[in-house]
């Protein structure tokens, strides 16, 4: 009887491990061979426009927005100055400071980011992880963001951000960035 209990527990543990292996989240290295290669300092340099939506956990679109981003770099330090306009007419500004720490690795800060955002580039992809202080109806929540950005061509980048709190999904943000042509001085 004891042997049967140990066997059953062992099989249950093996099954759980097998299921967990099936749900391994993607890593940036999985995209290392994808092209075009993302050069973060080149793409986020100049003026970009973005259009996005926020979907709640059921998938319902609850907010639409546009963003104008002005980006520049001095050496390994970049500034992304984002102006958001939401479908309800409200506006928001976020200014990121990015710092390249190693090839393909970046750290970012912004006034409403708790601690530092950590970014990793591989191939055409960037994974960006951070905690955002998100105001909702007069209360500020610390929400986990996992952004995945994919360079489609020299002008277009797609961004999908999963939002969660205590491991539970709160919704997702989807954006399409479009880089404006550089204007010669």
Q: Could you explain how this protein is built, in words?
A:
The longest helix is centred in the first third of the chain and has 21 residues, at 2-22. This protein has helices at 2-22, 40-43; strands at residues 46-56, 61-74, 77-86, 91-102, 105-109, 113-122, 125-136, 139-151, 156-165, 168-179. The chain has one domain: Beta Barrel (Lipocalin), CATH 2.40.128. It has 185 residues and is mainly beta. It is 14% helix and 59% strand. A hairpin with a 4-residue loop joins strand 8 and strand 9. The radius of gyration is 20 Å and the shape is globular.
Key features of this structure:
185 residues, mainly beta, Lipocalin, ten-stranded antiparallel β-barrel, 10 strands
- N-to-C terminal Cα separation, in Å? 83 Å
C-alpha Rg (nearest Å): 20 Å
Strand order of the largest sheet: 1-2-3-4-5-6-7-8-9-10
CATH architecture name: Beta Barrel
Query: Within the CATH hierarchy, at the fold level, what is the topology?
Result: Lipocalin
Q: Strand tally, please?
A: 10
Q: Which term fits the overall shape?
A: globular
Total domains, how many? 1
Unreliable segments (pLDDT under 50, ≥5 consecutive)? Answer: 16-21
Sheet with the most strands, sense and barrel status: 10 strands, antiparallel, barrel
What pattern of helices and strands is seen along the backbone? HHEEEEEEEEEE
Per CATH, the class reads Mainly Beta
- Number of helices, where a helix is a run of at least 4 consecutive DSSP H or I residues: 2
Structural class: mainly beta
Helix content: 10-25%
């Amino acid at each position: 009887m004891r042997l049967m209990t140990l066997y059953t527990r062992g099989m249950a543990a093996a099954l759980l491990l097998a299921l967990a292996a099936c749900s391994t989240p993607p890593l940036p290295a999985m995209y290392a061979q994808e092209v075009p290669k993302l050069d973060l300092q080149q793409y986020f340099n100049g003026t970009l426009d973005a259009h996005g939506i926020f979907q709640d956990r059921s998938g319902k679109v609850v907010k639409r927005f546009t963003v104008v981003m002005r980006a520049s770099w001095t050496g390994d330090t970049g500034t992304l100055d984002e102006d958001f306009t939401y479908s309800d007419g409200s506006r928001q500004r976020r200014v990121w400071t990015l710092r390249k720490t190693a090839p393909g690795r970046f750290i970012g800060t912004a006034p409403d980011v708790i601690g530092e955002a950590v970014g990793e580039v591989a191939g055409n992809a960037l994974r960006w992880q951070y905690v955002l202080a998100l105001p909702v109806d007069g209360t500020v929540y610390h929400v986990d963001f996992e952004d995945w950005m994919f360079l489609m061509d020299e002008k277009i980048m797609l961004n999908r951000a999963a939002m969660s709190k205590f491991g539970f999904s709160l919704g997702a943000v989807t954006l399409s960035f479009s880089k404006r042509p550089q204007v010669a001085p």
